[in-house]
Amino acid sequence: MTKFQALAQKYGTPLYVYDFDTIDTKFSALKEVFKARKSLICFAVKSNSNLSVLKHMAHLGAGCDCVSIGEVKRALVAGIPKYKIIFSGVGKRDEEIEEALQNDILMINLESEEEMNRVEMIASKLGVIARISIRVNPNIDAQTHPYISTGLHENKFGVDLDSAKRMYIHAKNSASLDPVGIHFHIGSQITEVEPFREAALVLANLLRNLKALKIEIKFFDVGGGIGIQYKDETTVDLYAYAQSIFAALTGLDVTLVCEPGRYLVGDCGFFLTRVLYEKNNGFKRFVIVDGAMNDLIRPSLYQAYHAIDVEGKEDHATSVCDVVGPICESGDFFAKNIALPALEHDDLLIVKSAGAYGFTMSSNYNTRTRVAEVALEKGEDRLIRQRESFEDVIALERAYL
Ligand SMILES: *Cc1c(COP(=O)(O)O)cnc(C)c1O
């Protein structure tokens, strides 16, 4: 029996498995290319927010990039030091801002002038000084899927250069704001260095302008977005990526902040699902599995490709099929027109590169219970999230009968 077959038997399916050793390798590789400068790697919590994953990040020395107060609290619970936590996001509520300030995190990343005014007001009310950074939208095409592209003027994120400059001047003169950072995040699953290089140049120039105005920014935050290999795409060369940022920063004394999500956890994750049935309607072969779009929505949402392995049948003859789940939606699929061997009830499929935006995007659609998560570390496996029960799913509902 293979390792994955044993895990499927022990914990049941569908199941997420994360190899923490892979996270270590990825983290070290990034730290290594950044070593010429002070750097802080803030893991993007939204990509995989399991507390054990965050605790592992804390252990590696990472901080966290959070996009809700819930994520900030997760990071704190997991032991991420408050001075390594960044709070980003286009729509922060007053209570979220207040709680972030009370927790004294590293900085709040502002995405509009109005938001700056609210943060200023709340900080003044609390009698604290809010450390802020500003998310600048450099209007650069990251050449990725439109749903995960964020650095164009047509996207809702960040502010344009002129507004950013105005905001920094305002913040510098405010008794309740301390402008410490500058930030861009132009999209996700970016496979080339060029968009990063262009964005870094635009922001470094702004930084020089600010310096001339005696506004000293300490943190240069290049966001996340580093792509991984799902199929046969070549992806970002880390060394070239780091060098392009260093080149933009020549002469500037700043700490480099990077917020990778997918890069750190994408490849560490495997989604295990068992075959229920095969069916052929005369036109098409379907493999129906026990996992579904509520467990892993990336194929349905972004037409994302995930490679699928069938252990133990590698040398069998294959034919083309769609791998689909039990949910009542035609969009419920993991793969279309891929070649797989003939399969039987209980055969195990391994959907690869499922560690980022997998479990965190899962739901209870069709009253399916969210699946269990397991960590693999130095050959040992442990449960890091219990499978939900039907009772868990209905626990917060009130039925007035
Ligand atoms: C989503 C997000 C990230 C992480 O993106 P990846 O593509 O997973 O690396 C980083 N920073 C911000 C502000 C984000 O919204």
Automatic annotation (TrEMBL):
Domain Orn/DAP/Arg decarboxylase 2 N-terminal: 22-265
InterPro entries membership: Ala_racemase/Decarboxylase_C, DAP_deCOOHase_LysA, De-COase2_C, De-COase2_CS, De-COase2_N, De-COase2_pyr-phos_BS, Orn/DAP/Arg_de-COase, PLP-binding_barrel
One GO molecular-function entry: diaminopimelate decarboxylase activity
Catalytic reactions on record: meso-2,6-diaminopimelate + H(+) = L-lysine + CO2
Keywords linked to the UniProt accession: Amino-acid biosynthesis, Decarboxylase, Lyase, Lysine biosynthesis, Pyridoxal phosphate
UniProt superkingdom: Bacteria
Cofactor names: pyridoxal 5'-phosphate
Enzyme nomenclature, EC number: 4.1.1.20
Residues annotated for substrate binding in this entry: 262, 298, 302, 329, 357
Coiled coil (residue ranges): none
Any one of the GO BP annotations: lysine biosynthetic process via diaminopimelate
Pathway annotation from the record: Amino-acid biosynthesis; L-lysine biosynthesis via DAP pathway; L-lysine from DL-2,6-diaminopimelate: step 1/1
Classification via SUPFAM superfamilies: Alanine racemase C-terminal domain-like (SSF50621), PLP-binding barrel (SSF51419)
All copies of domain Orn/DAP/Arg decarboxylase 2 C-terminal, residue ranges: 15-355
Record CDD domains: PLPDE_III_DapDC (cd06828)
Residues engaged in binding pyridoxal 5'-phosphate: 225, 259-262, 357
N6-(pyridoxal phosphate)lysine: residues carrying this PTM: 46
Active-site residues (renumbered): 328
Family, per entry: Belongs to the Orn/Lys/Arg decarboxylase class-II family. LysA subfamily.
Function as written in the Swiss-Prot or TrEMBL entry: Specifically catalyzes the decarboxylation of meso-diaminopimelate (meso-DAP) to L-lysine.
Quaternary structure annotation from Swiss-Prot or TrEMBL: Homodimer.
The protein's name: Diaminopimelate decarboxylase
Species assigned in the record: Sulfurospirillum halorespirans DSM 13726
Lineage start: Bacteria, Pseudomonadati, Campylobacterota, Epsilonproteobacteria, Campylobacterales
